[in-house]
C-alpha cells in the first residue's frame, strides 16, 4: 500500500433494510418477487440451445434429468471410495452428452426372438460331481 492511510481489518458493513434491492436480487427473503417468478418461469436449458444437434433423444436434450449418481445419493464414507467410482460419480452435463445419436437397429434381436434362444442338444459325457 503506497503512502495512504494504514489498512486495518475490513469491517462488515451493516445491512440497510431501507435500501432498494437491485432487480433480480434474491436473498433468504426474496424482495423482488416479480424477478424471482420470471427466473422460475424460464424454460430449462437444453443441449440443442448450446450445440448443433442431430436426432437427440430427450434424455440427452435434458441432461439435468439424470439422477442417481454418486455425488447425488452416495452415503459411502470417502475413505472407502475406489478410483473406479470416479467415472460415474458426476452426472452428465451439457458439455459431456453426445450431440449426435445413431440408434442401433433391431434386426438381430427380432430374428433371435422369432427363432428362439440357442439350446445345446449335444450328449453330456461328463461325470457327475459328488
From TrEMBL:
<protein>
    <submittedName>
        <fullName>Uncharacterized protein</fullName>
    </submittedName>
</protein>
